[in-house]
Amino acid sequence: GYHYNALTCEGCKGFFRRSVTKKAVYHCKSGGCCEMDMYMRRKCQDCRLRKCRAVGMLAECLLTEVQCQSKRLRKGGKSRGQEEEENTDSRRVSSTSRIPAQVLSAGLTREQKHMVDRMVEAHHQFRGQDPSCLMLFEWQNAQEDGGVSPGNVPPHLQRLLLFARTVPGFDLLDFSDQIALLSVSLLEVMFLLSAQQFSQNPASPSPVLQIFNTSTHSWPRDVESKENFQSRMQISSGSREDLLGSVLNFLHSTAVLRVTEAEYALLTATALLCSDRASLQAASCVEKMQELILDLL
């Protein structure tokens, strides 16, 4: 499960909590070079704690004793009637057109909020780059990146990789799985970036528009102008026209929803973590990682 900002087993969750709570100091007899496995993790606590920190576990994600007691009291004090009332309120709130950001964040644990904040910051940096860096040819060449190694990652994958590394558990995947997920999700990521850019500024450069050789300055800004725009477009084939119409509908639909930065970050992470991708060695792990993100959404 996801514990203290990292995807770990229950055993390491308890070990990390005890070590931090007791402020334990361990010493490795082999100079801190033990390779962690099911056997060595019981033999060298120093290297085990190092490994916990290396995969992203954070001491600040632990609850204080006062917070733990408060949490237990809240759980024990809820009657069945209160729970039913809360469920009713929850359904009523979910039916509204918009939920304030503070209400959404109030439902997250401190650990979850820390995770989302990291992803949002990384996503903001990812999309905040020069739009010229997000040219269509980079996305088109994504499938041609054979033989990618850790020291030879193409620029367009490097930018997405920086964001992906904030997704819980991504760094624990084999490098070949990381590159496979990045490469085949680039198109979905491009559409999400384009949707966010369009909702904030319809005239801003958009990667998806390059498919149709369309200038962003002539991009429609409302439903009526969208229909007029489609009728004015000189499109040679019906299939291309259908595709453009679908793109228009997608961008306008997301703009109407007023998707937040946090939601775009989580949607991008969801697009990255598709377990049905080809050539994945750890498909089941990727599926569990995606479930964590979907729960946050």
Automatic annotation (TrEMBL):
It comes from the Eukaryota. Pfam families: Hormone_recep, zf-C4. Gene3D superfamilies: Erythroid Transcription Factor GATA-1, subunit A (3.30.50.10), Retinoid X Receptor (1.10.565.10). GO terms for cellular component: RNA polymerase II transcription regulator complex. Keywords: DNA-binding, Metal-binding, Nucleus, Receptor, Transcription, Transcription regulation, Zinc, Zinc-finger. SMART domains: ZnF_C4. Residues 74-97 are annotated as: Disordered. GO terms for molecular function: nuclear receptor activity; RNA polymerase II cis-regulatory region sequence-specific DNA binding; zinc ion binding. InterPro entries: NHR-like_dom_sf, Nucl_hrmn_rcpt_lig-bd, Nuclear_hormone_rcpt_NR1, Nuclear_hrmn_rcpt, Znf_hrmn_rcpt, Znf_NHR/GATA. Residues 1-64 form the Nuclear receptor domain. One of its GO terms (biological process) is negative regulation of transcription by RNA polymerase II. Residues 111-297 form the NR LBD domain. The keyword Zinc-finger applies. This is Nuclear receptor subfamily 1, group H, member 5. It comes from Nothobranchius kadleci (African annual killifish). The lineage of its organism: Eukaryota, Metazoa, Chordata, Craniata, Vertebrata.
